[in-house]
Write a structure and sequence with these properties.
Layout (H helix, E strand, L loop, with lengths): L4 E9 L3 H17 L4 E9 L2 H10 L3 E4 L5 H13 L5 E4 L4 E3 L1 H12 L4 E4 L2 E5 L2 E5 L18 E3 H6 L14 H9 L7 E4 L1 H4 L3 E4 L15 E4 H4 L17
Parallel strand pairs: 1-2, 1-4, 2-3, 6-10, 7-11
Antiparallel strand pairs: 4-9, 5-11, 6-9, 7-8, 8-12
Helix pairs in contact: 1-2
């Protein structure tokens, strides 16, 4: 019989305090829901001082202040902080991303069965009254089958091989997905899996507000869902609808 896993979930935040409050609360609720099978440690690396710390701690996150630039090294700092918790695995999510509880059950099984890395190839974008589904990079794209940036899970063993620095040594503020891919390509002998939301039966959702790292105009949706569909999801849409941009 397997013992309870310890997983460290971390995110990085800057500004967008109302959205951050929503996202951190979402994961704190998941922590409670899976507490019988997993000790989920919650970590927020923020650049918002006292206010950021208050929001994080009221939502069950341990807060660590770090300069917002370079963003790549802010992310690495988050991974290094996770090392202190001695977890069996680490999950990274953006502070504007929510993934439903289905992913946690799925990732727990993967780690227990010796998978070292898992990434998600597709994503849902939530804008005003519209949920757009993007199925991932197309076959004619050099990044075909490459996972998106957030939502990745790393085993402790893989993190040790990465020296707890998945984003490498470059000091940049954009293009962080490529850094992880480059770093992983230097590692041999680890078991990986690339999945879709359909594999899991859940939703990985990028919430689009006025301040975004990725430009929504760069994505062409493969499917679109209206407000009636959105309201069926367990994401408390009403709480954030006024923050959303229109696609």
């Amino acid at each position: 019989m397997y013992s309870k896993l310890k997983i460290c979930l971390f995110t990085v935040s800057y500004k967008r305090l109302e959205l951050t409050d929503y996202v951190l609360n979402f994961y704190n609720n998941i922590k409670k829901d899976i507490s019988d099978i997993c000790d989920l440690e919650l970590v927020c690396i923020g650049s918002d001082g006292k206010k950021g710390k208050e929001i994080a701690e009221k939502n069950g996150f341990d807060y660590y202040e770090y300069t917002n630039e370079p963003v790549s090294q802010k992310h690495n700092y988050g991974a290094k902080i996770c090392k202190r918790y001695n977890p069996d695995a680490v999950i990274y999510v953006g502070s504007d991303d929510i993934m439903t509880i289905d992913f946690f059950y799925y990732y727990i099984d993967l780690i227990k069965n010796g998978i070292d890395f898992c990434g998600i190839k597709d994503v849902y974008f939530l804008t005003k009254d519209l949920l757009g589904y993007w199925n991932g990079y197309k076959p004619n794209n050099i990044r075909y089958n490459e996972p998106i940036g957030p939502g990745k899970v790393y085993s402790k063993s893989l993190m040790e091989k990465l020296n707890w620095k998945p984003w490498g040594d470059k000091k940049i503020n954009r293009g962080l997905d490529n850094l992880v891919t480059e770093k992983l390509n230097t590692i041999k002998d680890y078991k990986k899996k690339i999945i879709s939301c359909n594999n899991v039966g859940g939703f990985f959702i990028d919430i689009k507000t006025k301040v975004n790292i990725s430009n929504i105009s760069e994505f062409t949706y493969d499917k679109e869902y209206d407000l009636e569909y959105i309201n069926k999801l367990d994401i408390n849409y009403d709480k954030i609808k006024d923050l959303l941009i229109t696609k």
